[in-house]
Amino acid sequence: MAGEGEEGKTKSFKLLGILDIQNIPCARGAVLHGSAASILVGLGHFLATSRVKRSFDFGVGGFMLTTLGSWFYCRYNNAKLRMQQKMIKDGLKNKVMYEGTSLDPTRK
Amino acid sequence: MAHPSQLGFQDAASPVMEELLHFHDHTLMIVFLISTLVLYIIVAMVSTKLTNKYVLDSQEIEIVWTVLPAVILILIALPSLRILYLMDEINDPHLTIKAMGHQWYWSYEYTDYENLGFDSYMIPTQDLTPGQFRLLETDHRMVVPMESPIRVLVSAEDVLHAWAVPALGIKMDAVPGRLNQTAFITSRPGVYYGQCSEICGANHSFMPIVVEAVPLEHFENWSSLMLEES
């Protein structure tokens, strides 16, 4: 009984000990996008300028901006989807309850 | 319910708790990015060979580290206030239950239609049956109909207590002589556990709360049974 709730979740992997990227929606994608952007931006800057420290700065900056951007984009779409799911669920419930009456939501 | 060595929230069983979970994820991501930045800055400062004894001021960086924290705070405050006001919305409850805190048990009163009231004591460890949870089970559960807005009026008969159910995102102080109101809707049937959340004496840790959400006809059968027994 006590372990049943854990079976549905994947094992957690926490970045910096706090961010569970396996179980938080959009976290894994955001961190992966950020890491990829960080490598591209950092490497690109180094190849262009041969400045190591400044390239690392750009890499970290790129990581933060891309992670944030990917995170908000994904969470916004997620929220929209959840809202639509809620509306569909309520619509189905109302349809079942009020079918054939004047309150039927599909009645035009 | 909670599992051993759990650090995070329990799965949400009400819409408000779902919103709280999403807000927590949002804030945690911001905290993670700030921590990453700070760690990077520490490593950069420790490993730099640059030293400049004559820097007196720098307007640009002052502007950055004033504006950026303000923006971050706004990004956190707006969803937070949204949820705060969401929790206070008028929700036209189908049922009102009074939860009264005593030393050391809870009592529940369902007085909308008939006069139903009962006490809810923790089941002692030696009386548990296999599969029951230590320090969480009670002899009588607070049964509610699922997917219905429920209002809970929380108070206390003696000292301060607090009525809390983490899966529903509820915590409300039980103050003697005061009625505090909270409301919830359970999204799914189930059993949700909580514990008294205000120090109230020797057995403060031994007065748990159990909310059981069931379909309406089961709730009606349960309330008829409880009325017959009392």
From TrEMBL, chain B:
- Main location per the UniProt record: mitochondrion
Q: Keywords in UniProt for this one?
A: Copper, Electron transport, Magnesium, Membrane, Metal-binding, Mitochondrion, Mitochondrion inner membrane, Respiratory chain, Translocase, Transmembrane, Transmembrane helix, Transport
> What is an example of a Pfam family matching this protein?
COX2_TM
Question: Where does the Cytochrome oxidase subunit II copper A binding domain lie?
Answer: 92-225
Q: Give the transmembrane ranges.
A: 27-51, 63-85
Which locations, inside or outside the cell, does it occupy?
Mitochondrion inner membrane
| Cofactor detail note | Binds a copper A center.
**Catalytic reaction(s) noted:** 4 Fe(II)-[cytochrome c] + O2 + 8 H(+)(in) = 4 Fe(III)-[cytochrome c] + 2 H2O + 4 H(+)(out)
Cytochrome oxidase subunit II transmembrane region profile domain sequence ranges: 1-91
Q: Can you list the GO cellular component terms from the UniProt entry?
A: mitochondrial inner membrane
Membrane topology according to the record:
Multi-pass membrane protein
Q: Which GO terms describe its biological process?
A: ATP synthesis coupled electron transport
Its needed co-factors are: Cu cation
Write out the GO MF terms. copper ion binding; cytochrome-c oxidase activity; oxidoreductase activity
**PANTHER family, sorted:** CYTOCHROME C OXIDASE SUBUNIT 2, CYTOCHROME C OXIDASE, SUBUNIT II
* Job of this protein: Component of the cytochrome c oxidase, the last enzyme in the mitochondrial electron transport chain which drives oxidative phosphorylation. The respiratory chain contains 3 multisubunit complexes succinate dehydrogenase (complex II, CII), ubiquinol-cytochrome c oxidoreductase (cytochrome b-c1 complex, complex III, CIII) and cytochrome c oxidase (complex IV, CIV), that cooperate to transfer electrons derived from NADH and succinate to molecular oxygen, creating an electrochemical gradient over the inner membrane that drives transmembrane transport and the ATP synthase.
What's this protein's family per the entry? Belongs to the cytochrome c oxidase subunit 2 family.
Protein name as annotated: Cytochrome c oxidase subunit 2
Q: What is the lineage of its organism?
A: Eukaryota, Metazoa, Chordata, Craniata, Vertebrata
